[in-house]
Amino acid sequence: MSKDSRIKRFIRKKNLNPTNNRKKVGIILFAASIGLFFLFAFRLSYIISSGEVAGVSLKEKTQDLYTGSTVIKAKRGAILDRNGQIIAEDATSYSLYAVLSETFLGQENKKLYAQKKDYEAIAETLDKYTNLSKEDALKYLNGGTKEDGTVQFQVEFGNNGKNLTLEQRQNIENELETLGIEGIYFNDHPDRIYPNGVFSSHFIGYTDLADPDDESTGLVGKMGLEAAYDNILSGKDGKIEYQRDVYGNPLPGTIVEDSESYDGKDIYTTLDIRLQTRLEALLDPFVEKYEPESVTTMLMEAKTGNILAMAQRPSFEPETKEGVDENFVWRNALIEDSFEPGSTMKIITAAAAIQEGVFNPNEQFAYPYGGVVLDEERDVKVNDWDKGEKGVLTFRQAISWSSNVGMLELERRMGNDKWKSYLESFNFGKSTNSGLPSESAGSLPTDNIVDIAMSSFGQAVSVTNFQMMQAFSAFANDGTMLKPQYISKIKDPQTGEETVTKKEAVGTPVSAQAVSDVRTYMIDTVEDPDYGIAYGVYTVPNYRVAAKTGTAQITENGLYLDGETDYLYSVVEMVPAENPEYILYVTVKRPAYYDKTMMSEIANPLMKLAMELKDTDGAADTATAVVTETSESSEVVEGNE
Predict the structure, then answer these.
(1) 1-58 tens-digit pLDDT
(2) What is the model's pLDDT at position 51?
(3) 228 lies in the same domain as 297
(4) Which stretches within 267-372 are classed as H helix?
(5) pTM for this one?
(6) Where does residue 148 rank: exposed (0-12), middle (13-18), buried (19+ CB within 10 A)?
(7) Confidence category of residue 557, pLDDT binned at 50, 70, 90
(8) Does residue 638 sit within a domain?
(9) 370 & 492 share domain
(10) Residue at 62 is within a domain
(11) How far apart are CA 118 and CA 179, in angstroms?
(12) Is the domain of 240 the same as that of 342?
């Protein structure tokens, strides 16, 4: 049988013809359609019953599509002075940019970009209302055109085009509108303003964006009060949810507040803006004149422990960050830096000796030839700053003339253990629990006999400004020390609830009689023409001044420096001397040159203003009360001062 015959026979046997083929294909397609239908029905039933597709919730997706939300930013609390004057508060700043692309058109093809013919006028306007010069503004504008002739969509104007105020923005917009010029626009940014500029900046601190790449995260405190009380100042953001149409617009009547925002609380400091401003103004020319390595100043209300003014140099401008360079001191020196205080410690020694009954103000003591030998093997000697040229002194004169030898004798009479116990009772070597970041506790002298002896005149013991002010407060409060306070109250602006800070006693190391006697001897420092080391230097009109100066040697790599001005100069001053209202403490480290009157350039005018304000504020309070009633019906080795 031929091959063709076999093929024909196979086709007849299988009944393979076009009609049968179509029937079979139809049957297959019908069966497939039925299968797909049931598969689709099953899948649809599953989606309806489960509400999910590939693990994604259809309900949630629908809600996302037709539900919108907005974060309601909480306002950061303000920082104010004791009288409610603003020190720091929230604001919005603005940054400039210019749109240059000719594709940026409005209705009826209105040109909304900056045209080249207007560059000159734009630059003049920016020069007028910002820190941008006309030349720089033109440089930015012209820089938007590349070498190949193409133009950037927009350009910004560098740092001088940022941090603009609302007033600056409005002035620019108004002038350009008058000129009929388009193309200049603004981005707004959350910001913090410090209207007083350099104003106890290390203590107040500053803020920055929590996330530099996302302004919606808001501000966070970076130093000082802003950082220490960030959780109180920050508040809590709220959220509003609403339904929206297919275009994303909120539907009327569907807005629901999901969570309420809570503004941060306001912090009222104890600072007095009048005194702080005066202090800052005094420090600038002082630093320029004497070129010290650093300066610290604290003014405290004696009867409460409230700090009315405090500052340090170098400092910085918290809003512009001017002064924050490679040499910037990232520390609040008043609380973080410890130092050997020098002769201001002598009033502590004298008070302890009086308390122990080993101080006779009229008793004379001898000045040994060549000074006092503390360690023969190491040849450690202590001299007075005048090498004993004044001759025989009484213990009272040892305070006003600042005699190291006199203090050594008092310490010897008390005994090392007893003297060290007084240092501890005055809370040296302990934190003041200020609540500010990185507070130093300082250190007590070691058990070495030389260190303990030297601590009697303020060497070999390290302290902070806060610790010294705390100790000094005992001399104005019958022997009771008060904790330095820098917050007067914290107020919730939404509820009006206030938390008021009360004065806090932290120990009574000596008696009222001991501190009263020491204040009397401190008066000699400025009033005794023969034995007052600062005779006539520290004065406050109509008031007597109690003062003690100090000149402490500075250590570096474990050794005392011996340069001409390698010292920490200081003064503590109490006014009025008989019953102090204010305590002032000033330190000046390593000035270019020394003048014994230099610290009075800060102390005298500041104390004068403090007493004037005390009188005027007191008179105003009295007048208000009357109206209300009516209407109702050195110190070591070579010896430094």
Answers:
(1) 566 666 566 555 555 556 666 666 667 777 777 777 666 666 656 556 655 655 555 4
(2) 52
(3) no
(4) 273-290, 333-336, 346-356
(5) 0.80
(6) exposed
(7) confident
(8) no
(9) yes
(10) no
(11) 9
(12) no
Q: For residue 130, which of 156, 112, 154, 149 has the smallest C-alpha distance? A: 156
Residue whose C-alpha is closest to residue 506's, from 438, 425, 567, 578: 425
- What is the total residue count of the chain? 641
Q: What are the φ/ψ torsions at residue 457 (nearest 5 degrees)?
A: -120, 25
The one-letter amino acid code at 535 reads Y
Contact 472/307 with Cβ under 8 angstroms?
no
User: Rounded distance, CA 275 to CA 278, Å?
Assistant: 5
Between CA 459 and CA 461 the distance in angstroms is 5
Q: How many domains does the chain have?
A: 3
Residues 432 and 408 in one domain: yes
Pair (168, 307) in one structural domain: no
Pairwise CA distance, residues 222 & 270, whole Å: 21
User: Do residues 552 and 567 touch, judged by C-beta distance below 8 A?
Assistant: yes
Q: Which helix (H) or strand (E) holds 533?
A: none
**Any catalytic annotation for residue 343?**
yes
Angle at Cα 424 formed by Cα 420 and Cα 429, nearest 5°?
A: 110
CA pair distance 538, 547, nearest whole angstrom: 8
Q: Is residue 91 a contact partner of residue 207, using CB atoms and an 8 Å limit? A: no
Q: Report d(CA 216, CA 206) in Å as an integer.
A: 18
- How many other CB atoms are found less than 10 A from the CB of residue 10? 10
Q: What is the CATH number of the domain that holds 78?
A: 3.30.70.2110
Please, what is the end-to-end C-alpha distance for the chain in angstroms?
138
- Residues 93, 343, 403, 456: which is the catalytic one? 343
Q: What is the DSSP string of 385-446?
A: TTTTTT--EEHHHHHHTT-HHHHHHHHHHH-HHHHHHHHHHTTTTS-----STT----B---
> What residues contact 530, with CB distance under 8 A and at least 6 apart?
none
Torsion of Cα atoms, 473 then 475 then 476 then 480, to 10°: 70
Q: What is the DSSP string of 60-119?
A: HHHHHHHEEEEEEPPPPPPEE-TTS-EEEEEEEEEEEEEE--TT-B-GGG-B-SPPGGGH
